[in-house]
Design brief:
alpha/beta; Rossmann fold; three-stranded antiparallel sheet; 11 strands; 27% helix; globular
């Protein structure tokens, strides 16, 4: 629990101390491999929850199994380190039990899209008010480098020595098909990560953020095209609602829809201007799905908020059902429940 300190700045609304990123850092030694992208994400999450005005005692981080799942230990909040793939289910229970809590889920491409795929899908379709961060390093890091559901075709690993023959999943496509009300993509060391996480934190409903994360031991440079400071702007299109999809270090390229309504990369100034380009509309589900299918090297990869709409949250609808039932049937007691309906007497 937080306690006020003399002369500490306070929030006008709550008269409680204003917390900083340091306040959300636990006393646990961070045990990830040196250079792991998880460090960058952890630092930004601490800053974002502080900026959002979160309280330590009203924030919960829930994780499954994997390298990313150490996350709750390093946040000075409540948390659960749960079992493989079940973090969304556990987080749903936390949110239903206490809707006032701010609940974040930390999962990985293996944890969330393989054994936990079913739980992730149904959490998103229910629109439970959770913030779900899926760290995607395209590999199983904790279990020493096997290919994962997002690994590219042909990936050679200890479990696929001749190369993976599986078609990789697109995490954002899965989230959109699951009817998530907020879907975004970010990169562990990118400047836009804090802004994307902040928007997710402010969203009411299931906010899904895929974060490209470097595993520098088992899959180093998997996203170098998106992190190399000299070339990344040629391979990323930064989405802004209501603005044309321009990209490139010199902002001289863009995404254009041809006569078949198919996206293609064009150069500006060669008969085309920004007015001819595709304009991002984060409320357009079909557009969001198309963007989720655009991948390097054929296209620059979209980063930012792909999709966002307002919708009823599961826990609010559930609470209303309970309230309506009580109003129509009365409070009820355990005794009346046990002795109602068909009751049998055992001689």
């Amino acid at each position: 629990m937080t306690t006020a300190t003399p002369n500490a700045p306070t929030s006008p609304a709550s008269h409680l101390p204003v917390l900083t990123a340091k306040d959300f850092a636990s006393d646990q030694d961070v045990r990830w491999c040196p250079g792991c992208g998880d460090y960058a994400i952890l630092n930004q999450v601490r800053k974002v929850v502080a900026k959002l005005g979160n309280r330590k005692e009203s924030t919960v981080f829930v994780s499954g199994i994997g390298c990313s799942s150490r996350f709750p230990y390093y946040m000075e909040t409540y948390g659960f380190h749960s079992i493989h793939g079940r973090a969304p289910a556990l987080a749903t229970g936390v949110k239903i039990a206490n809707p006032d809590l701010d609940v974040w889920v930390v999962t990985g491409d293996g944890d969330g899209l393989s054994i936990g795929g079913n739980h992730l899908i149904h959490t998103l379709r229910r629109n439970v008010n959770l913030k779900i961060m899926l760290f995607n390093n395209r590999i199983y890091g904790l279990t020493k480098g096997q290919y994962s559901p997002t690994s590219e075709e042909g990936k050679k690993t200890p479990s696929s020595p001749m190369g993976s023959i599986d078609m990789p999943l697109s995490a954002c496509s899965v989230a959109l098909a699951s009817e998530a009300s907020f879907v975004a993509r970010a990169i562990d060391v990118d400047k836009d990560l804090p802004n994307i996480l902040e928007q997710a934190g402010q969203h009411k409903g299931s906010a899904f953020v895929e974060i490209y994360q470097d595993c520098n031991v088992f899959n180093h440079h998997a996203f170098e095209y998106a992190t190399n400071k000299d070339s990344k702007e040629e391979h990323l299109v930064r989405l802004e609602h209501g603005k044309p999809m321009v990209f490139g270090k010199n902002k001289d390229k863009g995404i254009f829809l041809d006569h078949r309504r198919k996206p293609r990369v064009v150069e500006l100034g060669k008969g085309l201007t920004e007015d001819d380009l595709l304009v991002h509309d984060m409320h357009d589900e079909s557009l969001a799905y198309m963007l989720s299918r655009m991948s390097y090297p054929e296209f620059p990869e979209p980063v930012g908020v792909l999709y966002r709409i307002a919708d009823d949250c599961y826990e609010d609808l559930l609470t209303k059902q309970v309230t309506d039932a009580i109003e129509s049937r009365g409070e009820g007691t355990l005794e009346s429940l046990l002795n109602s309906g068909e009751v049998y007497e055992v001689a």
